[in-house]
Specification:
0% strand; 2 domains; 17 helices; 83% helix
C-alpha cells in the first residue's frame, strides 16, 4: 500500500543517513559522547566558579565592555595626532563622566520614588485589598491571601529599595575594581592594534574573531544605549502628558530595561501601569499600554534590528535563556550584559574554532538558512500552481 511504501522509503533514507554519519570522520571518533559529557561537566564547574567570583568578574567584564565601546574615541584622537597618554586620559574621563551622570540620575529617581510611595500609601493598600478580594473570588485560600496583604506596608518598599541602592553605592570593592580596570584597560588598549598585527600571522582566525567580537559588542551596546535613551525620554514625556506619577522614574527604568532582551519591556511597564491604575483607572492603564506598545514596537522591533544587523547572531531562544542564565550566575547586571557575555562564549567556543562552524546556524546565524527556506517556498509555490493549472487541450 502507499503508506507502507512511504514508510519503507523513510526507513531507507534514515538508514542511508545513519550510514553516512557512521562513515564520516567525526572529531573524537567513538569517544565523542564522552567528550560531550566532559565538556558539559567543565561548563558546570566554570559556571559555579564564575558565580563564586561574581563580585569581581561582573565589574571586570563591565569595564571591558565600556573600554570596547569607547575605543573608537581613542583611535579618532590618535589619528589626529593626539599623544597616546592624552588620548588615554580622554577615554577615561569620558567613561567616568558617563558613569557619574548615570549615577546622579539614579539618585534623583530614587529620591522622587521615596517621596512618591508614601503619597499613594492609602491607594496602594486599597488596591491590594481589591486584588486580595479578586484572588479569593477565583478560589485562592482566603487565609493565605489575608496573611499576604494584612501586614503589607508600602513604606517597607522604600526601605528595601533604599537598602538595595545603598548596597550598590557601598560596594567599595566593586567600584575600586571597576575604575582600576578601566584605567588599566584604557592604557593597555593603546598596544592592542600592534598586538593583533603580531598575532595575525600565527592565529588569523583568533584575531578575526576578537576583532569581530569587539565590533559586534560595540555596535550592540552603543545602538542599544542610544535607542534606550530615546525610549526612556519618549516614555518620560508620554507619561507626563498622560499624567502618570513618577514619569522620570519610569523613563529611567525603561532605559535600563532596554538592555534586557525579550523581558525588559514587561519589567518596565509594570510600575507605570500600577500608578496609572491608582490615579486614572482603566482608561489611563490602556493609554500606558498603548504608548509603551507603540514605542517598543517601533524602537526595539523595527529600528534596532535594522541598525544592529548581524552583530547579534543569536536565536530568540538562546537570547532569552542567556538573560536568565547570566542573571542567576552574576546577578542583575548579568541580565544587562547577557548579550556581550553570550557573544564572548560563542567567540571562544565557536567563532575561533574552525571545527565548530557547522553549529553557527543552530545558534542564530540564519542568512543561509533563510535563503534555503525562501528557495524551498518558491519551489513549493510553483509546484502548487502547476498542480492546479488547467490542462491544455489536446491537439488532434
Amino acid at each position: 500500500m502507499w503508506w507502507n511504501r512511504k514508510r519503507t522509503e523513510s526507513k531507507a533514507a534514515t538508514s542511508e543517513a545513519e550510514a553516512a554519519a557512521l562513515g564520516a570522520d567525526v572529531p573524537g571518533g567513538e569517544h565523542r559522547n564522552a567528550f560531550i559529557l566532559i565538556g558539559l561537566g567543565g561548563a558546570a564547574v566554570a559556571a559555579f566558579g564564575i558565580a563564586a567570583l561574581a563580585g569581581i568578574i561582573a565589574p571586570v567584564f563591565f569595564a571591558l565592555v565600556l573600554t570596547i565601546c569607547v575605543h573608537p574615541l581613542r583611535v579618532w584622537l590618535e589619528d589626529r595626532g593626539v599623544p597616546r597618554g592624552i588620548a588615554t586620559g580622554s577615554v577615561i574621563t569620558a567613561v567616568t563622566l558617563l558613569l557619574l551622570t548615570f549615577g546622579y540620575a539614579v539618585m534623583v529617581a530614587f529620591g522622587q520614588f521615596a517621596n512618591l510611595l508614601p503619597e499613594f500609601a492609602d491607594e496602594i493598600k486599597a488596591w491590594g485589598a481589591d486584588v486580595a478580594q479578586w484572588l479569593v473570588s477565583i478560589g485562592i485560600n482566603a487565609d493565605e491571601v489575608h496573611a499576604l496583604f494584612t501586614d503589607f506596608d508600602p513604606g517597607t518598599v522604600i526601605g528595601f529599595v533604599g537598602g538595595f541602592v545603598g548596597g550598590i553605592a557601598g560596594w567599595t570593592t566593586t567600584l575600586v575594581v571597576l575604575f582600576t580596570m578601566l584605567l588599566l584597560m584604557a592604557m593597555d588598549a593603546g598596544y592592542l592594534p600592534t598586538l593583533l598585527r603580531q598575532l595575525r600571522p600565527h592565529r588569523p582566525l583568533v584575531v578575526t574573531s576578537l576583532v569581530n567580537y569587539g565590533s559586534n559588542v560595540r555596535r550592540y551596546m552603543i545602538v542599544t544605549t542610544v535607542l534606550g535613551v530615546a525610549q526612556g525620554v519618549v516614555n518620560w514625556i508620554a507619561l507626563t502628558i498622560i499624567g502618570v506619577p513618577g514619569a522620570f522614574i519610569w523613563g529611567l527604568l525603561a532605559f535600563l530595561c532596554s538592555f534586557i532582551p525579550n523581558i525588559g519591556y514587561f519589567i518596565a511597564i509594570i510600575p507605570p501601569i500600577i500608578f496609572a491604575a491608582l490615579v486614572g483607572g482603566w482608561p489611563m492603564v490602556i493609554a500606558v499600554i498603548v504608548v509603551y506598545g507603540l514605542i517598543n514596537a517601533v524602537i526595539q522591533s523595527v529600528i534596532q534590528p535594522r541598525v544592529v544587523g548581524n552583530a547579534v547572531a543569536l536565536s530568540q531562544t538562546i537570547t532569552f535563556f542567556s538573560v536568565l542564565f547570566w542573571a542567576v550566575i552574576i546577578g542583575p547586571i548579568g541580565a544587562i550584559l547577557a548579550i556581550p557575555l553570550t557573544l564572548l562564549v560563542r567567540m571562544v567556543l565557536v567563532d575561533s574554532n574552525p571545527n565548530s562552524f557547522w553549529i553557527r546556524p543552530m545558534l542564530g546565524e540564519l542568512d543561509e538558512t533563510k535563503a534555503i527556506m525562501a528557495e524551498a517556498d518558491a519551489e513549493a509555490k510553483a509546484a502548487r500552481k502547476a498542480k492546479h493549472a488547467p490542462l491544455a487541450p489536446s491537439v488532434e
